[in-house]
Amino acid sequence: MSQPSVFVERLQLSHFRNYQQLTLALGGQMNVLTGENGSGKTNMLEALSVFMPGRGLRRAPFEDMACSDGPGSWAVNIGLGGPGGPVRLGSGLMREPGSGRFKRLNRIDGATAAGAGAFAPHIRLVWLTPVMDRLFTGPASERRRFLDRIVISGDPAQSGRLSRFERAMRERNKLLESPGADTAWLDALETQMAEYGVAIAAARRETTARLGALMERFEEAGAAFAFPWARLKLDGFAEDALNRYAAVEVEDFYRTMLSDSRRRDAAAGRTLDGPHRSDLIVRHGPKDRDAKLCSTGEQKALLIALILGQTRMITQLAGGLKPVLLLDEIAAHLDERRRHGLFEILLGMGVQTFMTGTDRTLFAGLEGRADFLTVAEGTVRPSGSFDEETFNEQ
């Protein structure tokens, strides 16, 4: 079992979800959290996920992360260990003095950071949750969001591109509602949408190509790999156009398309074309079948294969910085062979992993090789092979 390149060695929660105050000393590669539904297992994973751009693994408003009987503010602090030395990261929602409003704050070693993207040089996170089990059968928006999260994990600048594109699109949609809209302002907004939209599509294409190449390695591994490889394809105007034209040409195409479709978009009340309508098409490689037609177990295995590919991709792009994995109820739909295969792959990859489940027996293959923690009603206690002397709860 290799040592992770970066690992969470300390976690502190204050008024976060069902945790009033909690301090954990960690550091092991494999961490298994077991407990009843509603005990707070997923809340711990969500707390770690706030160190990625966005709203965490539940995509919840930051206000909803506060304890229901607390002050409305919350804080998550982690201590990281690794070759680069100890680093302290903090994120939270704090009340602004004098206004009563709440503001998101991020800190690195006590210094204020501009946003969650500033954490990228220190930590990357990858997660898989039960909600994602419907990825292949749900709407395109879910697959698009899944892909963009993969892009962001390797290219944090994608988060800013998405925010700027969406902001310009919202302003354009609102402007189109007004009779006699300012055409010069519409031109400016559509220029921004074209610039950021094509950059978003280009980043998606690059990431999909990288991930697809990793999937080909899985194909070559054949039966030795516990999860099926996948074929990936992007379905979208900008992504498709970039296969044939230079980015600057696609920007011109898209800007012209937006200008020509103002009347249609105004009638629809939204922008009908662009990277916000793209889709990620996934096929089960060995069976050459659309993922949405596969069984529940096959879909779960495909998801895990994509997550493992994402983990390898981040390690390549981040100069060897391995991500921390958050795997919620990971073993629920896996047979014994795939559970064992997943555990061995994770141990071999040397990534720090946090897994949750209600049934400890599903993690029997990790006995003696993982730190087991029991979660109950906002408390966390060590069990099994966990070293009690490194644990401290407040």
Structural notes for this entry:
It is a single chain. The chain has 394 residues and is an alpha/beta fold. It folds into two domains: 1-124 and 318-394, 3-Layer(aba) Sandwich (Rossmann fold), CATH 3.40.50; 133-316, Glutathione S-transferase Yfyf (Class Pi), Chain A, domain 2 (Up-down Bundle). Helix content is 37%, strand content 22%. The chain is built from nine helices and 15 strands. The chain has helices at 41-49, 140-154, 157-176, 183-221, 237-241, 247-260, 262-268, 296-317, 336-349, and strands at residues 7-16, 19-25, 30-34, 74-81, 87-95, 102-108, 111-113, 125-128, 230-235, 279-284, 289-290, 324-327, 353-357, 371-376, 379-383. The strands form three sheets. A six-stranded antiparallel beta sheet has the order 2-1-4-5-6-7, with helices on one face. It has a six-stranded mixed beta sheet with strand order 8-12-13-3-14-15, with helices on both faces. The longest helix is centred in the middle third of the chain and has 39 residues, at 183-221. It is globular and about 70 Å long. The model is unreliable at 385-394 (pLDDT under 50).
Topology overview:
Blueprint: E1 7-16, E2 19-25, E3 30-34, H1 41-49, E4 74-81, E5 87-95, E6 102-108, E7 111-113, E8 125-128, H2 140-154, H3 157-176, H4 183-221, E9 230-235, H5 237-241, H6 247-260, H7 262-268, E10 279-284, E11 289-290, H8 296-317, E12 324-327, H9 336-349, E13 353-357, E14 371-376, E15 379-383
Parallel strand pairs: 3-13, 3-14, 8-12, 12-13
Antiparallel strand pairs: 1-2, 1-4, 4-5, 5-6, 6-7, 9-10, 10-11, 14-15
Helix pairs in contact: 2-4, 3-4, 4-6, 4-8
